[in-house]
Amino acid sequence: MRIVIDMQGAQTDSRFRGIGRYSLSLAQAIARNAGNHDVCLALNAQLPESISTIRQAFEHLIPEERIRIFDVPQFNTLGNWESRSAEAIREAFLVELNPDIVLITSLFEGFWANAVLSVGAFGGAHRTAVVLYDLIPFIYPENYLRTSEMQNYYQQKLEWMKRSGLVLAISESSRQEGIRLLGMSEDKVVNISSAIGGQFRPNIKIKDKAPELLSKFAIQRSMVLYAPGGFDTRKNFKRLMEAYSLLPESLRRNHQLVIVSKLNQGQHQEMTTMAKSLGLGKDELILTGYVSDDDLINLYSLARLFIFPSLHEGFGLPALEAMACGVPVVGSMTTSLPEVIGLKEALFDPESVESIRQTLVQGLTDEAYRQRLIEHAKVHVKKFNWDNSAKTALEALEKLHAIAPFLDEKPDLIEELSKVAKDTKPDTKALRLTANCIAYNQGAQQRQLLLDISTLVHTDTKTGTQRAVISLISELFKLNPRELNIQPIYFTGGIYRYANTFCFEKFLHETGTGDTPVDFFQGDVYLSLDLNMHLSHKTHRLHCDMRSRGLRIAYLVYDILVSQYPKWWKDDNASIFLSWLKNIGDVATDLICISQLVATDVKSFYKQNPPNRSEQDPTIRSFHLGADLEKTLLSIGLPTSSGQMLSAMQERLSLLMVGTIEPRDDYLQALAVFELLWQRGLDINLVVVGMRGWLVDGCIEQLENHPQSMLKLFWLDSVNDEYLQIIYQAADCFIDASEGEDFGLPVKKAVQNGLPLIVRDLPFFREIATEYAHFFQGHSTNDLADAIEQWVKLHAKNLHPTTTCMKWLSRKESAAQLISLMDLN
Amino acid sequence: MTSNSLFKLNAALRWLRSQTNRLHQERLRSRIKALVKKILIFIRYQIQTHPKWRDGLLMVSQKTGAYQALKRMDARLMGYGQHSANQEIRLKQSEEFQLSTKAEKIYQDLKGTIERQQRGHN
Q1: Per the CB < 8 Å rule, is B102 touching A439?
Q2: Is the pTM of this model over 0.90?
Q3: A425 lies in some domain
Q4: Nearest CA to CA, how far is A114 from chain B (Å)?
């Protein structure tokens, strides 16, 4: 049997109240006890803030692909096109999941929030089960249904409830209400009861924390505690305060009435005025306002007596929580409270002040009575647990499944919507938004791997990163993994578009026609291939939305040197990078680093700067980039001035440095080193190939105006791929003296060309070059000069380390590694 | 520090200074908007905490037909009706905002069916 649980009860603002907690706990328990049954969750994409929390709550209970998200038009007004089409769209989505049973955890959501709940729009009502908490608004319409709109809304919900195949009541009292007030048959309404979390138990260490906690809430004496869960009239505050004011002076002197619940200033004012009018002293009533679960448990544990005088409850969870915490509990003899408290002598008539007063006196003074309440509670609370509730619910659902006829007809949503349009007259924009939601809900036949190459599409700066991006795309197209539709995309005008034009022009690869907006579907994988940090402030919310819609969100991380050495970058770039790093930590499911070292750095960064997320932290893994560039994409042609340099390179030993001229590479120091070596009489060339970077004006001036320029010192600002290849072949050694390196594409290129390496002893170089490079330590000019001199001597004797046996990854292997690392095959 | 009487006396001056700074940083239009919002939240709070006023307002607004507008304003003011970034972007775009190929096909289908039905009805 496939059970689809509509979780909107845990998505709206109800998630902060009992209904939300109940919805979540019941669904978790059903998933735990489902046995051979399939459990799917249906979540509303228009309530995105709760999705990651729910996903986290079911992490080990339900595979992520069975947590399904549906989209509906956003609406403010009930009964218009948006709200009515939303009902049809949601029900059509549920039907597509092929449920045997649909379980709605809270049918009454949606008056304020964007929740959409209906039963049987396409005739599947008999296979729908609904949880019934209470019918309090129906019983007290003057307090809860003040407007005709509210009355109509509630009435419609009741009709749907009556139409459903099964009603799961949270208490016997609610069950009886359903039968008596709604006229539902006895066998249709089942009591599945309720339970509390395992955290509610006596806190034996509370004495250590007591003084701090009590002073936090200005509690100075023993507590008579009430946790009403709201400030409605039915909570019976007036009679409670009146009864309290009639207690003997000695009891009042030694106790305080503490009411724990979230309240606003107006309610606070109302309560204090009421207390004053009933003769309660200023310090006799304490209103704590909202307290955390931990504080609540501690307050329960410290209370002398817990009282629950409410006139009407669906269940009355606080009474059970207090009982589990080992405090004597007394409460009303109405509605569900007798079954929750389970002991006749602990009950009183909530409409009689005298009855409340007598119970209070007995609860505070009669030790034998108090002990009986505590002992009874120890046994009684064990009857309530989520697994029992879930098993009862599952049993009822199985029975319903056995009798409910199977429907194999799929509804025609478009036909259904056209009927809605007859009354509501939607405009073009409303229809287009609706179409957008339906498209998302329908999903795609093939999973998409969406490669974000926004920066590359906007400006190809031909940096190492962008060369790597181009190589990877090209190889991924060639790999063409099965069941995976590879689609490069870019961000523009607030949305993502398919980069079809770019791909055709650059790779002659047809991915589609025109740069149409991207269809995002649940299960797709978004991978930010390029470093799109400058767009992060615009795309971050969209990425969060994509994640909440069930996409995997992955980023390729080339290095995080900016966070480690911010002085090497311009201030604005450093702050943009850090903000990007923070953003991706908050939303990513996967961070793919280009070396083990980068992965370690990223892990330690997030250890020091924990991401702000409710899901589990992203998976951080590493792979290596390929060293060979895409041949078809190489730029060709030699400049006329190339002859002079190449012949100089043939005359003497030539040491090559490749990479953008930037502070971390310290070309100034390299220049000083070679000046020293030339003074020492070493006849060698220094060839520098690298674009002008940032914060290096002094260095550029020296390179341009050096006396050895074009004699033994050659700087090439920009070279094409063919020329660079010839330079690599003509050079005798490759030097990388960078003080921070996590990318190292030029080093890999040098290895590919069989060049020996002289590199700084950095973890990154140790990771990729192992024993095949000549490493040097130290930061002074002499250290590097000595290392080069030593290498030259070794080279003369042919004893220098060579890279011929060093393994390097091809771009094809690199792309395959990426696909397998992300488990996309 | 807070118990220091001088600190308390200076509170108004500090408030004035912070307001001047914010005016400088956020500009007049945004500050006026913030002030209006503050006033509306204050009025809303007063109405919420006085059930008689609230019932009166509900009755009058329903009779005059202003109830829906009030409810929408309230939702905007208090940030109810959280919706996804995706739809927010769509909502901000023009009426003819571009849809994905799949959504466009669904839209044409839906529009065609509605038009056909209207023609049949007429």
Answers
A1: yes
A2: no
A3: no
A4: 5
